[in-house]
Specification:
Length: 555
């Protein structure tokens, strides 16, 4: 037993010398990394967290009457209102912090993080207003941005990591450090609260290399994790270097690191199935627990939150991974579209892409597929839809001319649309427009299609930008007149998790921003852009423009 206790003490000492952080009141130089550069990740260094031996006494002080506010992106946020239909669902680490803190109630953690946001775009959200209204003396603010600040092709989210915290902006855009300091650190400190900066967790890299590229948040614009650490040192703000922690672990065992991540589905047959459709950015609840554990157990001595971290709590184990599997998940009965198998459906090559035709979903019966016709002539696509199709809360039915896109790509698309004939009376089951959706089916009447999609569109009763994003229900982005022979301009722009859709007609314009749409719940590698019409409409689509604009890194 004495030898066992001695071993534990030695392990604890090694653990304490793990990752370098900035302290709450001053920079903790030399705290965290030993001379060899090795990093202790907590638990047993295998990532399984199988801590054996005597249990440490919990001498933590209970946090009473105060709150811990959390802001950040999809790696931090709560998905409980919009749960994924994934085999291993997404969880942000902000949801699991309570496991390792001595609190009166887990409701003392106020997770305001939102998927798809950057330190800049979060400022426009109601959750930022809530933060400003509620944070007070003795509270804490955990700040977890970075992933979406890197989106250089999105002016609403991009911030420049090279400028310091006293420089508001550069020629490229707002300063990352300045945005964090002025809107989060200063806010917390002015209210008597303690801010804690977190560098972003790494994205998974298949090759196991986490140096000098975007998986470790070093982009062509600069080093985002490095900018956060410098900001912490310059402003005497605590920094939890989650980039370094996750980079060290993933580099040490890239195969085990997969267990932390969300997976859309599985391959094989139960009970010997294997996770499939890996989300390389987002973590599951096991990963969220581990990140939370690492964050809190590595807080520097100078940080006031450390005294509220539970002692004697083991790191998550493989049992937590097993528990993360979604027992309600039903694998979709779906075969992905293979262009080689459907050459007869190819209609034209336009704007550098191959466009195919199909009628699918609720069409009114299997024989109704033949009621749809498609053509391309004189730089114009035409869809003539049968009268039996419809869009409803749990059903899609439409004729579509579509292009297949790798899920990993950003793109922008525009088109002009004109309804030249309508055989049905006004209804919201009637619609036309340009749609981005998860899956596609070829010439099939199937009443169970109710997948995620967004669209720049108009319904027969004048609703704009129809979508299905949560629990199979349809939503709309505003109002737009449904007018025969009027010319509509449609735009769909995708940058990672953010999709902007716009429909214009004359002086009328409706733009809708979708910030967290899963397009991988059914087809986990492809997405489909469709020019669509249904229920007796004849629609001409002209001036089609489509272009891939970059890589779609999620967060």
């Amino acid at each position: 037993m004495k030898f066992k206790k001695l071993l534990i003490l030695l392990l604890c000492a090694a653990f304490a010398s793990g990752i370098a952080f900035s302290g709450c009141g001053n920079t903790q130089n030399g705290e965290g990394t030993d001379n060899s550069g090795n990093t202790d990740l907590g638990g047993d260094n295998t990532g399984d967290g199988d801590n054996t031996g005597d249990t440490e006494v919990d001498n933590s002080i209970k946090l009473t009457d105060k709150k811990i506010f959390v802001v950040g992106d999809s790696t931090v946020c709560d998905y409980s209102e919009k749960p994924d239909n994934y085999y291993l669902q997404r969880y942000g680490y902000g949801t699991q912090l309570y496991n390792y803190l001595n609190l009166e109630s887990k409701n003392q953690i106020v997770n305001l993080a939102l998927s798809g946001r950057s330190s800049l775009s979060f400022l426009t959200e109601a959750n930022y207003a809530k933060l400003k209204n509620e944070i007070g003396d003795g509270d804490y603010l955990i700040i977890g941005f970075g992933h979406n600040d890197e989106k250089s092709d999105d002016k609403g989210r991009f911030t420049d990591p090279k400028a310091d915290y006293m420089t508001p902006s550069t020629g490229k855009g707002p300063s990352f450090q300045y945005t964090l300091y002025e809107n989060y650190i200063k806010l917390a400190k002015s209210r008597g609260a303690t801010p804690i900066l977190c560098t972003p967790i790494v994205r998974y890299a298949e090759d196991g290399v986490y140096e000098g590229k975007s998986v470790a948040h070093v982009t062509a614009d600069g080093d985002y994790a490095g900018a956060i650490k410098k900001l912490g040192a310059d402003t005497e703000t605590a920094v939890a270097d989650l980039t370094e922690i996750t980079k060290k672990y993933y580099s040490a065992d890239n195969e085990k690191a997969k267990k932390f991540h969300a997976f859309t589905t599985y391959s094989g047959t139960k009970p010997n199935e294997k996770p499939d459709g890996m989300d390389k950015t987002h973590i599951n609840i096991y990963g969220a627990k581990m990140i939370s554990y690492w964050l809190l157990t590595n807080l520097p001595d100078g940080c006031a939150l450390k005294k509220h971290v539970k002692g004697g709590v083991a790191a998550p184990t493989d049992a937590d991974y097993s528990a993360a599997i979604n027992q309600d998940y039903v694998k979709p009965d779906y075969t992905g579209f293979n262009p080689a198998n459907h050459t007869a459906n190819k209609l034209a090559s336009v704007s550098g892409a191959d466009w195919y035709k199909t009628a699918f979903g609720t069409l009114g019966g299997a024989s109704k597929v033949k009621d749809y016709s498609f053509s391309y002539a004189e730089n114009k696509f035409t869809v003539k839809a049968g009268e039996g199709s419809k869009f409803a809360a749990t059903q899609d039915g439409t004729g579509a001319i579509f292009v297949q896109i790798d899920e990993s790509k950003n793109f922008t698309a525009t088109v002009k649309a004109k309804v030249t004939a309508s055989a049905s009376s006004a209804s919201d089951q009637i619609a036309f427009g340009m749609m981005l959706r998860d899956d596609i089916y070829i010439d099939t009447n199937i009443t169970t299609v109710a997948s995620n999609f967004v669209s720049a569109s108009v319904t027969g009763k004048g609703k704009a930008n129809m979508s299905r994003t949560v629990n199979t229900s349809l939503g709309y982005g505003g109002a737009m007149p449904f007018t025969l022979n009027a010319e509509y301009e449609l735009t769909v722009n995708r940058v990672g998790q953010v999709v902007d859709v716009t429909v214009k007609q004359g002086a009328n314009s409706v733009t809708t921003k979708f910030t967290d749409i899963s397009f991988v719940g059914v087809d986990n590698t492809k997405i489909y852009l469709c020019l669509f019409a249904n229920r007796g409409l004849t629609v001409e689509f002209s001036e089609v423009s489509f272009a891939i604009t970059g890589e779609a890194q999620g967060a």
